């Protein structure tokens, strides 16, 4: 008994010290914290003299053809201030920051906005409770500062995109008596560090209340629970909103445009890039598929896991700075996470943490953190999925143990951890983002996380202004609110803390009911559209009443989302639509396959595809769904093996095509293997 008490001495002392600290500010915090709710829109909805809603109208999105023309002109008689390579969270965040400072900006993305890591996150907007614990245990003030910065950015995130983000209560089960004061002190410190940017205050929950709120939670050895609040968002739709906001404010923003080389002057300084339209080749337009020059005063490398590839393009002798790590997530049935309450397992079998979160009507679980190779289409490995299933099952009642048949989708994202090339210890990883400049003038922003994308962008643009001698200026931005106002004028400095993204201006908790007041749609569809498109749902629903029907009978996605994604959100391929304009493939890969025939028909009409292009898109979509976990579900027991290399959702090959929803699907050859390293034990 004495030995056990000695082992608990440090956590108890830390808990006592933290409790003293947070008690001083606890009353203040509790008096002013509140749930993040948007009761009133930034722009009121108009009604006519009979009190009927007058739907807002918005300016059209610039066409792909017009933006390609803008890009081509820069190689002839104009020059951009900045050319940004990469259309993920970092790149599009930089574009919004730079264009609102009055700079002339272009952004190109080889695939689609958020096609890589930025769409494959845990969907949290957070400071990081586990990072706070590490900061306290290691007496690491630098780590503590990072948590505080992320907590401030969390509130900004929720403010500028309230339709795509929200606060989320997360339950932390307590298994031992000493955990109550220890974790209570930790969550209260987390609240307090957020300061005026905090969400609702954390609180203790009794065992009975916890089981009532989370019925599937395992009751054995449980002594109670703590509930704290963090943010949650729709990552790829947030990414698309950033890209569209930058475009509407004057930036040239293009997906499916690849950088093939960097342009340098006689002194070896970068002065632009060679790019090519990837889609021109798919459309059989050989002339338009030829590379062309884009001139820019500065080039920014914001390519995440592919940072080193652009570095090699600049200087083949440059050493890698990215330490890629794979993060696997799985989607499970919604019944696991009831009542909008998430779950955190802070003590998994290998010391990592697992989140189990409600998201888009389903349950999201993850993540892993294993070293890996950088690849364009990573696939979740069986051992990683089995690890998540095993750890989640330990939290649930014995009769709720999960098997692979419960996995509706599975994917792997590559987290671009970075090493500071100037650090004495070259093996140490940078805890935040890293901004570097090569001798030729290539500016790189790497590392970081979704929550701090805005701060990363601000730091990068600040550095670009100094490095390339750019001249920010006041600029009158056009109105994108749909209110017919005159817009607003910036002062040439960073203002992104206060720039609402597309869809945010007319959003409020009343938007879904307002949509139903005008259009004959079901409540779940209205709620889905309000929380995925914000006020742009008005444009979507106005396309055609015939398209306001479901793509899949059991889900709220409608056909108009396909047309809207193409017309107003730069969707160019089927994966663009089923993965990043809608989130169908992330929620249920089989449901996405079921919707595929209708998605193909609508997209081919909108984009005027040839029969050959339509067939190619079908094949590409099925291959993509294989990487998202498409498989024949089984009741196979979870037995994780470190030697397994096949994807968890590899498809059983057949010599005959399968027919799904009117679509002939040849599953031969899909699935494949991945080059991921074995899981670490640390």
Automatic annotation (TrEMBL):
Span of domain Alpha-glycerophosphate oxidase C-terminal: 494-614
Amino acid composition bias (Polar residues), ranges on this chain: 673-682
Database matches in InterPro entries: DAO_C (IPR031656), DAO_C_sf (IPR038299), FAD-dep_OxRdtase (IPR006076), FAD/NAD-bd_sf (IPR036188), G3P_DH_FAD-dep (IPR000447)
Gene Ontology molecular functions: glycerol-3-phosphate dehydrogenase (quinone) activity
Entries under Pfam families matching the protein: DAO, DAO_C
EC number: 1.1.5.3
Record-level GO BP terms: glycerol-3-phosphate metabolic process
EC class name: oxidoreductase
Any single GO CC term annotated in Swiss-Prot or TrEMBL for this entry: mitochondrion
Coiled-coil region(s): none
Gene3D superfamilies per UniProt: Alpha-glycerophosphate oxidase, cap domain, D-Amino Acid Oxidase, subunit A, domain 2, FAD/NAD(P)-binding domain
Cofactor requirements of the protein: FAD
Natural source organism: Fusarium gaditjirri
Name of this protein: Glycerol-3-phosphate dehydrogenase
Catalytic activity: a quinone + sn-glycerol 3-phosphate = dihydroxyacetone phosphate + a quinol
Keywords per UniProt: FAD, Flavoprotein, Oxidoreductase
Keyword Flavoprotein belongs to the record: yes
Domain FAD dependent oxidoreductase, first and last residues per copy: 81-454
Protein family per UniProt: Belongs to the FAD-dependent glycerol-3-phosphate dehydrogenase family.
Spans annotated as Disordered: 634-682
Comp. bias intervals (Basic and acidic residues): 642-655
